[in-house]
Amino acid sequence: MAEFFGTTVADIFNTMPTRFKPEEARDVDIIIGYECRGDGGGKWKVHIKNGTIQVEEVAGELTGCKMSVHAADAETFIGVTLGKIAAIEVLTSGKLRVVGDPRVLMMLLPKVFVQYTVPAKKSAVAAKDIIATIAERFRPDKAAGVAMKVGYDLTGAGGGQWTIVIQDGKCAVEEGLAKDLTVKMTMPADVYTGMMLGTISGETAFTSGQVKIDGDMMAAGATSRFFSKYVDPSAQAGEAEELITIKVTNAIDCRFATGPVMGMWFKGLKEKKFLANVCPKCGRTQVPPREICAFCRVRCNEWVELGPRGTITAADVVYFASPDPLTGAVRETPYAMTWVLLDNASAQEAFCLDIKKEDLGRMKVGDRVRPVWAEKRTGSFRDVLYFELDQETRGEKR
Amino acid sequence: MKKQSKMQTGTHRKNRNVAIVGVGMTSLSSHKEDQNQPEMIHEAVRAALADANLTLDDVDCIVHGNMELFEMQFQPDMWHVLGSGAYGKDEYRITTGGTVGATMVCAADNLVASGLYDTVLAIGFEKLQEGNTTGGITNMADPLWFRNIQTGALTGTTAGMLIDEFGEERAKKAAMKYRILMDKHAMLNERAHRRFGLEYEQAEDLMKTSPQLVGELRLIHMCSQSDGACAMIFTHEEKARKISGKPVWVRDHITVHREETMSNLYAFEKPEMTHHYAARKLFERNGITDPVAYFDVFEMYDPSSWWGLDWLREFLMLKGDEHIRMLEDGEFDLDGRLPINPSGGVIASNPIGATAMLRPAFAALQIRGDAGGCQIRKPVNHALASGFGGTLWTVLIMLEKDLNWQEANHG
Amino acid sequence: MTTMTCKKEDTANCFVMEGKMALPNQYFAGRLGSKFIIALRDGKKIMGINCPKCRKTFVPPREYCHVCQTKIDENWVELGSEGELVNYAIVRYQGRHLPRKVPYILGQIKLRGADTPLTHIVEGVDFKDVHVGMKLKAVFAEKTTHTLLDLDHFEPA
């Protein structure tokens, strides 16, 4: 099979079950289709349902998928999966296409899968090779006063049974499982290898039941402390160096004073009114209101009520919504930022709000609209829910 | 100065002339995990110093800028000191949104022209991979009202207006031709970020298949998101003549910010656009009545094909469908009457904090004849470069090959 | 002529809105930064970089010597984990983002072999006993976070 960036498309799908994080997919029921054209490609259907996953290669059409990803070639698909090719670039050039709800790609997939990484080279490290290094990786300073026997029962190909004896600041590895184990950990050998090499998330392996623990749970969790990290010797030669990325979330609480002008605006909203202030020189009605006329630079002290009805002057139908930076939530698309010239507003002063979902498909520039107010208004942005088409006068055009 | 009396009153009078003597930039890409920010800046600084044949000891002031908080780092100039070379020197931190790159050029020009500093190093950068662009943009809107509505900087209303004015087919074709033209220019520019190799035959297909973002604004029309840094060195006439064989003179610049007209763009009656206002004022005070005839290249800040197309009319003081006709007739091509964005523009490369600096930077390289594969074959003597910021900032800069504008009469 | 939109005393319509900004993002340590942190995390070692021209060793490491502008990124030096306290402050104002609960000592430690002090937390000594010149040694973290705090703190040697 064609290889790019050191791996194959098939490997990405073969490793999906081990990279899957069931605890992140509890309330999910979705079928995702994948198509990769050309040499080294194929078609796959991935069905994630309530914490379980099924990956199957298919021959015919990708039917019944909520979302499907289509790559022009294997190189594109592998490159994007590894992050070596920017998704936005191939989406723009068309080498990668998404049919269906793209938010699945953006939000769900990164959540339920451990990031795929190129597997270690052909020198497939066996479990016993790793175990053989245990004694030299032991850190007696960390295990002062500790006495325990930890048993590893590694099943499947490349597996075996070993006991690690920690006592009096010394560590010994014996074959087989001792009778008086403090704790025994049972898992497939390749899961052990994966955890030690970092390609499988240890937490996930434990929580998903791939690793079974009999005995002292605390001891099981403590063992990693006593050993320095395993480093695959073959990985050092020419392998990509590890580059550290530090992820942070900066959260700052803030408080904003409205001042009297915006304060008046919010007071108006509470009373179901759009209050604009008027420039004494040019007569412009500013909505939302401002201290000063934007064009004449003089103070605007007079107020006037606008609308409540208005005429649509422009509408931006948004198909691709950026995630809300405060909540991470992505607004349901499509939605429309609707610009409206409220009645009595001066000609240049359009005002923007959402349009009612049901009216999105049939609204046009020139249509009449009216605001829909929240039942309980507190003097905030949420006091007006949206505009809706004004049925009685909908016949009038500009 | 007698000669200046030929120009309109209210001219900006400089104490001395200023030239660009060094231009440096990093590669522009979306993968810079192997560098941290100070290291990336230093790469551009070294390139600019090498280009000018100067060392940091020759620089007496640094001007540093990007879009504040886009990397979620407040006042990164302090962290960057070891990379910017500002250690032990005077430094100005400038953040004017998307225009910051161009504003830094204006600031550097003012600082040297005033006589306060002799040699100024301006550095613009962005490392969007490390940041949260949406968060940054949303937090520019006022927190009391607009922050709740705004989602990023995308809008499709310009597309809608152009479709209304020129008809759907002609408008869409023009926007797509503009897009492909920008890509063709980018393909010639070794320094550009995104180069797709688009062909005009693909126009129909792209118009239909590219995913819609907002209205008729499709993914294919949108600008890039790049990481990179750009550095430029400015010095006064006496020193420039000594050290550089190809100084590029900063003739004039103007900054216009019309954020107060943002919502007015969507009403039936529209105010004068920031671009038109800026161009009108700048050209008036420099005695330029026919910008298309006067300039040899225009590096315009074009965040999307639709805006690029629309703003050509605004900047170049055109009327009706002149700009579309010029585009259709190939007048904006590399070998046309007035090449637009031979570098590929913002659609091809957009390291935001540096983007507005890249415009005068590429324009300067064109004047010098150092633009590489995208070099205009005809002599480039007069260049125009623009910067744009999301809340309707415009910065317009005029660059000249020779210091002769103070004598000549322009028509 | 009124110069105010309303009188300062007229606060009937003024109020305060609560807001929040919570933005996730990331930093790249870069090649050198990564090597430095990996040495802390896996090797339990503190590494610096030496400028052969200026004969100075910098920690944390940097790509270029800012004094002579020479590229120095190949000259890694393993510094000991012992050093001397050259300066300190006692942090008493609690901020959400601080690595420890206040009060704690933030010190500058000049490691043996380094010419720049490393800023870090000092523990295991009473505030009345901490003094410039005292000898300290590094204590590495058990649970690592791929950050500078993989070196957990310094304590009296």
Record keyword descriptors for this entry:
heterotrimer, A: 398 residues, alpha+beta, Nonspecific Lipid-transfer Protein, Chain A, 3 domains, five-stranded mixed beta sheet, 12 helices, elongated, disordered C terminus, B: 411 residues, alpha/beta, Peroxisomal Thiolase, Chain A, domain 1, nine-stranded mixed beta sheet, two-stranded antiparallel ribbon, 15 helices, 11 strands, globular
Superfamily (CATH H level) name of the domain at 15-133 and 225-234 in chain B? Thiolase/Chalcone synthase
What do we call the CATH topology of the domain at 15-133 and 225-234 in chain B?
A: Peroxisomal Thiolase, Chain A, domain 1
Strand content of chain C: 35-45%
Report the CATH architecture of the domain at 15-133 and 225-234 in chain B: 3-Layer(aba) Sandwich
**Fraction of residues of chain B in helices?**
25-40%
User: How many H/I helical runs of chain C?
Assistant: 1
Low-confidence stretches of chain B: 1-10
Overall pLDDT confidence of chain B: 89
Strand percentage of chain B, roughly? 15-25%
Termini separation of chain B: 22 Å
On the 0 to 100 scale, the average pLDDT of chain C is: 89
Task: Explain the overall architecture.
The complex is a heterotrimer of chains A (398), B (411) and C (157). Chain A is of the alpha+beta class and 398 residues long. Helix content of chain A is 21%, strand content 31%. Chain A folds into three domains: 9-112, Nonspecific Lipid-transfer Protein, Chain A (2-Layer Sandwich), CATH 3.30.1050; 127-226, 2-Layer Sandwich (Nonspecific Lipid-transfer Protein, Chain A); 259-389, no CATH class. Chain A has twelve helices and 19 strands. In chain A, strands 3-2-1-4-5 form a five-stranded mixed β-sheet. In chain A, a hairpin with a 2-residue loop joins strand 7 and strand 8. The longest helix of chain A has 12 residues, at 259-270. Chain A starts with 8 loop residues before the first helix and ends in a 9-residue tail after the last strand. By secondary structure, chain B is α/β, with parallel strands linked by helices. Chain B has a domain at 15-133 and 225-234: Thiolase/Chalcone synthase (Peroxisomal Thiolase, Chain A, domain 1, 3-Layer(aba) Sandwich). Chain B has helices at 37-52, 76-79, 81-84, 100-114, 133-138, 157-166, 168-188, 203-209, 237-243, 274-285, 291-294, 305-315, 322-328, 345-348, 352-368, and strands at 18-25, 61-65, 90-94, 119-127, 212-214, 217-218, 227-236, 248-257, 297-299, 382-389, 393-400. In chain B, the strands form two sheets. Chain B has a nine-stranded mixed β-sheet with strand order 3-2-4-7-1-8-11-10-9. A two-stranded antiparallel sheet of chain B has the order 5-6. In chain B, strand 5 and strand 6 form a beta hairpin. In chain B, helix 4 (100-114) crosses helix 15, helix 6 (157-166) packs across helix 7 (168-188) and helix 7 packs across helix 8. The model of chain B is unreliable at 1-10 (pLDDT under 50). Chain C has 157 residues and is mainly beta. Chain C is built from one helix and nine strands. Chain C has a five-stranded antiparallel β-sheet with strand order 7-6-5-8-9, with no helix packed on it. In chain C, strands 3-2-4 form a three-stranded antiparallel β-sheet, with helices on one face. Chain C is extended. The relative contact order of chain C is 0.15. Chains in contact: A-B, A-C, B-C. The interface between A and B is large, with 50 and 47 residues.
